[in-house]
Design a protein that fits this description.
heterodimer; A: 199 residues; mainly alpha; rod-shaped; B: 179 residues; 11 helices; elongated
Chain lengths: 199, 179
């Protein structure tokens, strides 16, 4: 007597009957060995379902939260990019007005370069589209920290413009340079991630 | 399993979570953390990989919550995201490329004939894709059509993986009968 193979036994557990299913069912009813095999299969599946739940060893919620916050910041930055350009334009205007009153300063041209470099790095970061890719805990932590610091610098720049329009070029230059340094580091983090996961 | 815990409070919690309430999002995470990790751990070789899948899954869940309309169970929706992320992780780790080698290592008849293992150890020993198919089909209740769709494979692939896996489990568990 030819006994049923594993595929046929598994088929008997599926809803509906495939071609040959009726014959297989008849065989099982008549064959104690195949009936026992089918019982063992049922038992094995029941035992698999009864395996104890495995629990994570680490709390990953802080990393999820940090990544969500970074994602929200990126969306906000994209949304506010027109506003960001406005801020840069107003600084450029301020510099032009000052230049009319005073000879062109070294700090003024350095400030323009820093702003341009900052926009360039933003475009590089956009090209990573990191929210669409797989990242790891290390990247999330590092990127989250850097993005927090960038957001802080942005707030300081806004405050400098709103509260103290007479901010010195040196003070603005310091903030824009800090922003460029942080963006540079963020690009490095994403490049490292890409090399770690072989992108 | 998580649904029964969450069912009574699901709607108000989801409304708060959709509005970006951090406490609600964390509550959602806590409610489904274990079943998601358990599923991921059954697929992945290491606990760290499974934790990464857990993290990826909840990032996606929190981000896509507005798209969940309450059709089907919340756990069903989260579970599909988790399974997809776990399969993505398997692909990323190129498990498929090493599967042929693992097959040779795992099914050597002489080595296995006298070896009895418990079910969990035997399941762990299966190649990753086989484990994923067994878990999705036998434990989570997905159909072969659904599994084939998730894996980008054919229904026959899913069926044959399941049959091969059960043949191995039966042998490793010492359940084979003569004849």
């Amino acid at each position: 007597m030819t006994h049923l193979g594993m595929e046929q036994l598994l088929q008997l557990r599926e809803p509906g009957l495939e071609p040959g299913g009726a014959a297989a069912r008849e065989h099982v009813e008549a064959c104690p060995q195949c009936r026992a095999e089918l019982d063992r299969l049922h038992q094995r599946v029941a035992r698999l379902r009864a395996l104890p739940a495995l629990r994570p060893g680490h709390n990953r919620w802080p990393a999820v939260r940090a990544r969500l916050a970074a994602h929200a910041r990126r969306r906000l930055l994209r949304f506010a990019s027109v506003g960001g350009l406005g801020l840069a334009a107003s600084i450029a205007l301020l510099l032009m007005v000052r230049d009319l009153a005073h000879p062109a300063s070294v700090a003024g041209s350095e400030l323009s370069s820093a702003i341009a470099r900052s926009h360039e790095l933003e475009r590089t970061l956009d090209s990573f589209k990191s929210d669409q890719r797989v990242t790891d805990g290390w990247t999330d932590r590092m990127a989250g920290e850097l993005e927090d610091r960038i957001a802080l610098v942005d707030r300081q720049l806004e405050m400098a413009q709103l509260m103290d329009p007479e901010s010195s070029e040196t003070a603005l230059l310091r903030l824009w340079r800090e922003r460029v340094g942080l963006l540079d580091a963020l690009v490095d983090v994403h490049l490292t991630r890409a090399s770690r996961i072989g992108l | 399993m998580a649904d029964t815990y969450l069912l009574a409070d699901a709607e108000p919690l989801l409304a708060r979570a959709r509005a970006g309430d951090q406490t609600a999002l964390e509550e959602l995470y806590r409610a489904f953390e274990t079943p998601v990790y358990n599923l991921a751990r059954r697929f992945c070789r290491t606990a760290e990989d499974a934790e990464d899948v857990l993290q990826e899954t909840f990032f996606e869940v929190c981000r896509s919550l507005k798209h969940y309309r309450g059709e089907g169970s919340l756990w069903g929706w989260i579970r599909t995201i988790a399974a997809s992320k776990a399969l993505m992780r398997l692909r990323r780790n190129r498990y498929r490329e090493t599967e042929a080698l693992e097959d040779d290592l795992h099914v050597g008849p002489r080595a296995d004939q006298h070896l009895r293992m418990d079910l969990e150890a035997a399941f762990e020993r299966l190649p990753p894709l086989s484990r994923a198919v067994v878990w999705l089909h036998d434990v989570e209740g997905y159909t072969h059509e659904e599994i084939a769709g998730m894996m980008g494979k054919t229904v026959s692939f899913s069926k044959s993986q399941l049959a091969r896996a059960h043949t191995r489990l039966r042998r490793w568990l010492g359940e084979e009968t003569a004849g």
